[in-house]
# Entry
Amino acid sequence: MDETTKLVFWRLGRAARTMGWPAIGGMALALFAAGFFVSNVMPLEGEVAALRERVRHLEARALDNQVKVVGPQRPDAQLLAFYEELPHARQAPEVVRRLHTHARAVGLVLESGEYRPLPDPSGKLVRYQILLPVKGGYPQVRDFLARAMRDTPGLALDGIGFQRDKGNSQALEAQLRFTVYLRAAA
# Structure
């Protein structure tokens, strides 16, 4: 060890003897706090600044794409808006094709279905009852139902029945009963 290093250690030892243990403990805590701040808090300050900038960007984008909030509507206006969302009665074959497309997309086997239009007493709607027997696994049936219900306005699931295929314990035979509500021809 050279002379300068010996002198530094001698002065530190002398300062420690004159300060006492409480002062040494306080200094050790201060050094620990400074090290913790440098190693943990300072890196997070950069992340906080980046997140604040992202919030500003998203707020500006939200203001650009601001959706007008419509106040409460009268019940007759709500009913009219509901009718406008429904497909026309002449689109019934397209609705059935869409159901078949969704079933094939998830891997279900479709057998012949039953399709029956029923007039609604109000005269504003046509109810189209659909009975679809399908074969496949339970996850496939669930995926089909989720897609069909999400993508077909006015579609209601009236009932579902499951039966296990005797030859294959994973396969199901499901009877799906739907009603599609369509706008009557004006």
Remarks:
- The chain is about 55% helix and 25% strand.
- The beta strands are 109-110, 114-119, 125-136, 155-164, 172-183.
